[in-house]
Amino acid sequence: MIVRIMGEGQVKLDDSHFTELNKLDDELLEEMEGGDEAGFRRTLVALLDAVRRLGTPLPDDALEPSELILPAEDASLDEVRQMLSDDGLIPG
User: Could you tell me if 58 and 11 are in contact, meaning their C-beta atoms sit under 8 angstroms apart?
Assistant: First the structure.
């Protein structure tokens, strides 16, 4: 799956990593619903770090369609809330 982190670029992620990423996504959603700004920030950074660590960056000139778009590390709670689906940022 091709994932875009807004403001950074794209990475290719193997589907086998989505169990780990979904755990962080569920935690992020819970913190957002509870208004836990510090927890939200910490978990968003952890989620993006996991995508960077587990994925393979695509070249800057690659124009692959992104199947998933994640917010930038400095996105606000409200900005991320607007990106959410019923399943969080990561479907499944």
Answer: yes
Q: pLDDT value at position 88?
A: 67
CA neighbor of 85 nearest in space, from 70, 75, 66, 74: 70
pLDDT computed for residue 60 by the predictor: 86
- Rounded Cα distance, 73 and 17, in Å: 20
pLDDT under 50: residue ranges of the chain: none
Q: How many CB atoms lie within 10 A of CB 86?
A: 6
Using CA atoms, how far apart are residues 89 and 10, in angstroms rounded to an integer?
Answer: 16
End-to-end CA distance of the chain: 13
Residue 79: which residues within 8 A CB-CB, separation 6 or more? 71
Query: How far is the C-alpha of 72 from the C-alpha of 51, rounded, in Å?
Result: 12
